[in-house]
Specification:
The chain is an all-alpha fold. 79% of the residues lie in helices and 1% in strands. It is flat, with a radius of gyration of 20 Å. This is CHAD domain-containing protein.
Length: 279
């Protein structure tokens, strides 16, 4: 372990933890605000991605806090999904089917708020346990951990892409691909700029392809964000379709949702097929 000053990774990690605290306070002040619900989920995702890069001892030391964050994330995600479903159905012209969602959201929010209040009383996961002992996280250990985690994610993305591009019915695989892309992007964001290049080159070969695989950092990060966004829209359609399939009399709205989903998927599939062919 290096002695003395805090590393850039540790500073970035603590900033991520502080962001969760700030957004948690906003969430508790106004949990009815959909923006707070979304911001809370995003900040927790970023913290989770950063947490995975901590050395094993630090992950164990912070496991209780990390588990509490995950439990709250899952509960809050249910609230967020219901907000998305409500907005999508309204956009599809299905206003009469929206009222029933309010009760479901209220129940989901009660559960999420209970976990949020409990989380507020506990400390966020910290990289600073080592710092308090005047030690910093070893750069070599961080690199080795990143090699392992990023390598696993890149492999998962490479394996999922041909499957989802060739079959629009692979909903869970599409969702898994989106989560992998998001996690990888958030991990790269928290790393010091000098440590990103190695991983960005590997990622570029998969999501940018061919002669563009030497794209700069901004292009790689933008590409990850673009794919994550497109797959997010597909996922929004999928959870809305799943809900509408259980609603009596919603056939016309359901079909509109399916048509929108098909168009979004086709856009994604054509885009990725060009990337795969260029690789």
């Amino acid at each position: 372990m290096q002695q003395g000053k805090t590393t850039q990774f540790e500073k970035n990690f603590e900033a991520s933890s502080a962001r969760v605290k700030k957004r948690l306070a906003a969430y508790l002040r106004d949990p009815e605000d959909g923006k707070n619900v979304h911001a809370m989920r995003t900040s927790l995702r970023r913290l989770e991605a950063a947490f995975l890069l901590l050395p094993k001892k630090e992950r164990k030391r912070n496991k209780k806090q990390a588990d509490a964050c995950k439990a709250f994330f899952r509960a809050n995600s249910r609230v967020r999904d219901l907000d998305i479903i409500s907005a999508k159905i309204t956009a599809l012209g299905g206003d009469p089917f929206v009222d029933a969602i309010a009760g479901k959201r209220k129940a989901a929010l009660v559960h999420a708020l209970a976990l949020a209040r409990s989380l507020e009383k506990n400390k966020m996961p910290l990289a600073a346990n080592a710092i308090k002992k005047k030690k910093s996280i070893d750069g070599d250990k961080l690199a080795a951990r990143m090699d392992k985690v990023a390598g696993r994610l890149v492999c998962a993305i490479e394996e999922r892409l041909p499957v989802v591009v060739g079959d629009s019915s692979k909903k869970e695989e599409l969702h898994g691909l989106r989560k992998d892309l998001k996690k990888l992007r958030y991990m790269l964001e928290i790393l010091p700029a000098g440590r990103r290049k190695k991983y960005e080159r590997a990622v570029a070969k998969v999501v940018v392809g061919g002669s563009n695989s030497n794209s700069g950092s901004n292009n790689v990060m933008a590409r990850l964000k673009e794919l994550q966004g497109t797959l997010g829209l597909v996922r929004d359609c999928d959870i809305t379709i799943e809900y509408l399939q259980r609603v009596k009399g919603a056939g016309a709205v359901l079909q509109k949702g399916k048509d929108e989903r098909d168009a979004l998927y086709e856009k994604f599939a054509k885009n990725m097929m060009m990337t795969i062919m260029a690789s």
